[in-house]
Amino acid sequence: MIGAIFPGMSGENKLGAFFTWDYHRDMLRDYSIHGILACGMTIVILTAGIDLSVGSLLGMTGMFFAHLMINLQLSPAVGIPFSLVAGTAAGLLNGVVITSFRIQPFVATLAMMVSARGLAKFIGGGRKIQAGTQQLPAIFEQISSQVLNNNLAIVTIIFLASMGVFWLILNRTRFGRHLYAIGGNDEAARLSGVRVNLVRTAAYGIAGLMSAVAGVCYAARTYYGDPEAGQGYELTSIAMVVIGGTSLIGGRGGIFLTLLGTLIIGYIEKILSINGVEIAYRFMVEGAIIVAAVIIQQTGRRTRL
Amino acid sequence: MKDTPLLQMKRISKSFPGVQALSEVSFELHEGEVVGLVGENGAGKSTLMKILSGVYAPDRGEILIDGQAVRFSSPKDAERAGVAVIYQELSLVPSVSVMENVLMGREPRTRWKTVDWREMARVSSELLTLLDMPIDVRRPVEEFGVAVQQMIEIAKALSLNARILVMDEPTSSLSEHETKQLFDIVRKLKGKGVGVVYISHKMEEIYEIADRITVLRDGQHVGTATAEELPSEKMIQWMVGRKIDQFFPSRTPEIGEELLKVSGLTLPQPGMSGVNLVNNVSFSVHSGEILGLAGLRGAGNSPLLGAIFGRYGRRPRGDIHIRGEKVEITSPPQAIAHGMAYLTNDRKASGLVLPMSVLHNMTLVSLRDMTRFGWLDPLVEQRSASAYRDSLSIRTPSLRTEVSTLSGGNQQKVILAKWLMSEPSILFLDEPTRGIDVGAKTEIYSLMNRWASEGKAILLITSELPELLAMSDRILVMHRGEITAEFSHEEATQEKVMAAAM
Ligand SMILES: Nc1ncnc2c1ncn2[C@@H]1O[C@H](COP(=O)(O)OP(=O)(O)OP(=O)(O)O)[C@@H](O)[C@H]1O
Ligand SMILES: [Mg+2]
User: Fold this and answer.
1) Less packed terminus of chain A by CB within 10 Å, N or C?
2) CATH 3.30.590.20 is right for the domain spanning B256-339+425-437+456-502
């Protein structure tokens, strides 16, 4: 039936693959990086903000990591922390611009999206950074490997662990509660003693940190630093958060919803691609699902009025 | 009066998860009549009216207009059938101009079918002038305070030329003068045959405007009587199910040490040099004392509290001493750290975080006390919140309920609970009984007395003069940002306070 709707699909049905663990493992592995970004995106959206720079920051930190590791042949104990700090710093800069100059998050992070992409290209002189004459550091292999007899990817573990940590942050810390309060009513939060600017800045800082985690994972998985890496990932991660049911106007939602959204998008894309649906149709389907998710959210709100 | 009533609601029932909001309630309204609808917080008044206006569908029961059964599936349907509602919670779009809010969805058109902005401005300012509120209708709504917004809401309802007009606590943020203005309009509408449902917790208003009174309690219809046949003691008994002998509980004040001293406090109006919202104000409050701050709107008493609390993000000129020690307060967290609590006069805009649960709203200020090794302990949170829910008798299906679904009065109590939980020593209460029912009002008065006798200092602002006179040990009257008079509890009378406030 799907074949009738999508002419680009091959006739043979490959859904049989759905019943093997390899299939789910690959889906999880392929979407873990998006999922890591979506974690950071969740807390930004909870504060009624948005971060368009996460994809570019992924590219930038990936390049940074590759440069430190491949070009300079530094130890991962230096390369990883430095990359994470770079991503966090960029995220904090987003936060500072938004809170101190009262610039719309959309605009501020759009500016960061453009500049971080520029920086990513600058680091490699516009080219990829790959191991040529030098040896590829072992850390690349390690991060992209799979454990438990090849049944679970390291990146998936990083993704699921992030989910756990974010759940704790959102549900068991004052900071988490403050994020919800700011998204729900920032004036009430401020008068209740919440340091609104600080918390908001931290939210963008964390989104930057998660971009860097994703950037390192991405570089490791591809074995090189790619200045174009992560393009469009910001939209996919926003889609994951929104489809899960976290409200774009802030104050409502949670990390499990984002896990749900990640799985929904992951499976849809996987099912469409395994059946050979062209990329153009896949984008259209994804767009339609996002619109549907937002509509469902809004009607839900209206009946609760 | 015709034989068929303008509106009949028959045996209406409605439940929400965990609450039976209405059970078998019947209600009648005739042409040219004002019916006062009263009852405790959460009795179901707003819900009944939201069913009438198509916001909610009833579980059971029917609605008849002119004897004809009607069924509204949306507020637009009800509007078309001639029902207009002024909701308790303001429903304006803050960033949009006043005139667009007033005529939303019914914008006048030019010959070319484009919006006729000039006509729109004319119609809306005419309506507002009628309400004695001549404001610039092209400005966005958010630039105006609650009272003006309330008037805009009223203008919006009037512009519908409805046959049935519902007013759900329209005066909770209006001054006496504005209330009078509103009543004049209601009487005019009455003369034209409009039926008005008037909901209020202010008894004087009900007796002033209502022809008949319908009382609800716990979602049930207790009775309906003409205003003459229902003296207020009996009405209150119908509402709360018991007698209230003493509306303002008495207290012997025990005034202790000086807790807060303000000297020469001056707060310039932002964007206007030379104009001060608060001008050279000095006073002090003592432990165990309730200090009333009287003044008409714009007198500066609300900004005064905000300025002390650090609400405006900059240090006002002048000095603040707490327990004799000079303090610098530039932000709310500092004020809270000094033991202050601040209940603002606008619960939706600056009091509650609406999408959060009752529990999370209550504990927002005191989260630090609910952590163990840096982690929030849900059990501790739950326990303290239940304690406050019980001591303030907050009616909510559960602590996990989203606070936006609570009745107005119960929302107010949630904010009170939030501040009490932080165990403050200095309480700023700006209109603490706004929208609160009679029973709960006396409860809050007793609580205020209890807090005072525990040694807290209370600064009270209220637009209800009897409340101010009865509760305050001392009253400061403000006018144009300055203190114009000071009265002791014994000296103060309505006339003296009004004279100093004008
Ligand atoms: N949307 C909703 N979802 C869940 N419960 C609701 C909702 N709206 C109202 N309730 C509940 O129904 C009951 C009646 O509420 P309602 O708002 O009608 O009270 P009210 O008489 O208007 O009180 P108040 O004087 O405080 O405004 C309350 O217990 C309230 O918590
Ligand atoms: Mg109500």
Assistant:
1) N
2) no
ipTM of the complex: 0.86
Q: What is the pLDDT of residues B457-466, one digit of tens each?
A: 999 999 888 8
Cβ(B151)–Cβ(B131) below 8 Å = yes
Report which residue type is found at B356: M
Average pLDDT over residues B166-172: 87
Rounded Cα gap, residues A214 and A208, in angstroms: 10
Gap between the Cα atoms of A135 and B405, Å rounded: 63
Instruction: Give the residue on A whose Cα is nearest the Cα of B341.
Output: A192
Same fold, B7-240 and B256-339+425-437+456-502: yes
Cβ B47 under 6 angstroms from ligand 1: yes
Domain ranges of chain B: 7-240, 256-339+425-437+456-502
CATH class of B7-240: alpha beta
Helix or strand (DSSP H, E) at B501: helix B494-501
Is A193 close to B333, i.e. CB distance below 8 A?
yes
**Is any atom of ligand 1 closer than 6 Å to the C-beta of B41?**
yes
pTM here is 0.85
Region for A183 from its dihedrals, namely left if φ exceeds 0, alpha if ψ lies in -120 to 50, beta otherwise = alpha
As a whole number of angstroms, the distance between CA A218 and CA B247 comes to 70
B398 band by pLDDT with thresholds 50, 70 and 90: very high
Residue B94 gets the label, from left (phi > 0), alpha (psi -120 to 50) or beta, of alpha
| Domain boundaries defined on chain A | 14-125+139-304
Assign domain A14-125+139-304 to its CATH architecture.
Answer: Orthogonal Bundle (1.10)
Contact A173 B351 (CB under 8 A): no
> What is the rounded distance in angstroms from the CA atom of residue B221 to the CA atom of residue B441?
22
Give the whole-angstrom CA distance, residue A143 versus residue A157. 10
B202, B406, B434, B436: which to mutate for ligand 1, most atoms within 8 A of CB?
B406
